[in-house]
Every structure is written in structure tokens, then in C-alpha cells.
Amino acid sequence: MSSYICPGCGTRSPVETANWRCPNCxxxxxxxxxxxxxxxxxxPTRVNSLWRYEEALPLAAPAVSLGEGRTPLVALTDxxxxxxxxxxxxxxxxxxxxxxxxxxxxxxxPRRVIADSSGNAGTAIxxxxxRAGLDCTVYVPEDTSAKxxxxxxxxxxxxxxxPGDRESTAEAARAAADEPGTFxxxxxxxxxxxxxxxxxxxxxxxxxxxxLPDAIVVPVGNGTLLLGADLAIGExxxxxxxxxxxxxxxxxxxxxxxxxxxxQAGADTLLDEPAPLAPTLAEGIAIPRPPxxxxxxxxxxASGGTFLTVTEDQIRAAQLDLAARGLxxxxxxxxxxxxxxxxxxxxxxxxxxxxxxxxxxxxxxxx
Length: 367
Known about the structure:
Order of helices and strands: EEEEEHEHEHEHEHHEHEHHEHHE
Oligomer: single chain
Structural class: alpha/beta
Radius of gyration: 19 Å
Strand order of the largest sheet: 4-5-13-10-11-12
Shape: globular
Distance between the termini: 46 Å
């Protein structure tokens, strides 16, 4: 296996250890891994899942796959297409990273796996741990969508409902993460998750015949899809498989937009005094203090991209508009479509990240 490396202070740690973050500066890990070039011509004969990009993945020959990946790319306008990642086995894009974490945990054979989530990552981890035969506990906020809670329980995971917000949930899980025999399947701290989400861009590259759109628009809370996209773009460019890097357009709900505020202020990390938070329909990206903030801001700036924010009314309207086009997507997953009209510089792809059945139609107000 590759080793973990801290992007903050350079500390290294074997993947086999239980260290879920850098023990010195407490930063999330990166992975010391170098991909190999992929031949576009070789792909049609390969397995029809994200594991077809084996040269780009830090794990191979998985035992826990549910056929995740290879989701459709559908045109919405002449310039904007949508990737239907809600058509994953657990109905969200989080399967891309969850399968990597579950496969890693299966090989490490811990006593138990724990995860924390606003819902979708938890359902994905629960499903893939069930597939791997691993004992799993998922921490979620107590106001998490009832459908997501039901799905986590259906997969046999132990559920911990945590009073308070998403940050309180993360703190509760981290307190348990250092217990002996525990593997912390954190979609934020563990870089294997990012190496799963990067397959989103490899699929775009394949489906577009070896090219990428001018812009890749992604919703950003903890930034796992954006950072995975940045990894893939860097790898494809380094191997000479693309000549131009697309702009990364990061979308946040106006109600919870700490990264957008830092970006607009020209800061390289979160502001010391962020704007007050408000309730939002986009629960999956309502993250007040994302641990990978520096990496997210750096990636967006380096790509020539920007941050966009959307209001609650725009989120509601976008969900209904997509439904009228035949696509029922949860309220967090429509944020990028709500923002797409503000981007007019060439072609773009937006991800539809979670199925509408997970949350239902957005209400007229949030509490």
C-alpha cells in the first residue's frame, strides 16, 4: 500500500496504522501515490465500473464492489450537461469514495468501522461495509432526513444520532476514532475517498472522447468531489492525456458559505470571523469549517475557477426545474444547476449527486 503524507508538515505514516490524521499538526492526510497513464482505447473491454481506471487507483481487485460508477452524462442545454451520479447503488456520488474506504478497511481487518455524515456518505459507508462484512457505526445529526436514517439502518449499521449540527457530529465521531481496533472511514480525512471521487472526472474524460469541458461545476461542503476532480485533472494533464485544464467552479449555499467568503476576500484559508450561518435546504454542503479549506481554495484558484453561491429560492426552483426535465434530485444535489446560469464561459458539466427520494421536495421554508 501507499503511505499517508501530511500536506501541512510533511509527516508520513504507513496506511496500516490507525492514525486517521497527522499526529503532529492534525491535518487531513494526502496519499503518496503516483498514477500511471491510461489508454483510452483499452477502456471499452474493461469492467463496467469505476474500477476500469485501475492505473489511476491506489487499490485494485476489489472484493466489495457493487458496480459503482459509469453514470450517464445527459445534456441539459447546448452548453451544460449533467452527470447522473444519483444513479449509484446507494443513490449518491458518495459511493465513489465509500467503496475505496470499505475495500481498504476490509484489507486492514479492524474490529469496527466508524463514519460521520450528514447522510449520504453514511449510507454509502454502511452499504459497502455490509458488503464487506464489517461492523459499522455511523454518526449523523439528529435532524438528518428520515429516509437517509432508514437506509443506514437497513444496511445493518449501528446509528448514533447526535444533537446539534454537522460539526457536533464530526466531533463525536472523532472522539471515538482513536479507540483500539477502530478504522475511521472519514470521507474528509482519509485520502482514499478522494481517489475514489476522482473517477468522476475520468469518466467525463472517457465519455467526451479524451477531452474535458471548459468548466467542472461541483457543490462544495467538505470539498471531496472538488478535490477528487482536481486530482484527476492533474493526473490526466501530467500524463499528456489532456492539454487544457478545466476551471473548477465551486458552489455553496448562500446560507452556509465560508469558503466562498474566504475566496472573495482573497484569503488562503477560512476567515477568522465568518459570516453568520443560517438554515439551508442544502444540508449536504452545510459545513461551517471544512478541514481541507486550504486545499479547496488553492485548487479553485489554480484552475482559474471561482465560487458561486445560491439562495434557498434558487435551490427550490432548480429542483422543480430538473424534475420538469425528468430528473428528481435531492435539494443539495441541485445546487450546481441553480448556479449554472451564472457561468457562461463555454461548456460545463454539473453533477446531480443524490436522488430526490432521499429528501423529497424542498419545503417552502427551512427552520
